[in-house]
Write a structure and sequence with these properties.
The protein is low in regular secondary structure and 59 residues long. It has no helices and no strands. The N and C termini lie far apart (61 Å).
């Protein structure tokens, strides 16, 4: 369960070596997750994706 563990008794890293705790549900409170792995939320870029248009001339 995301952000449902106890920071006082959890190790500082999860089974994969990721840092703990992480604010996995974005509520402003960094609590460890229950289980061996800490959820790492995706990084938001906040930007737009620009793809240039291709132009083909047909004779």
């Amino acid at each position: 369960a995301i952000d449902a563990g106890d920071n006082a008794v959890a190790p500082m890293t999860d089974y994969a070596g990721n840092a703990r705790p992480v604010d996995g549900n974005a509520d402003g409170a960094a609590l460890v997750d229950m289980g061996a792995y800490e959820f790492v939320p995706p990084v938001e870029t906040g930007g737009e994706l620009f793809l240039p248009a291709l132009r083909y001339d047909v004779d």
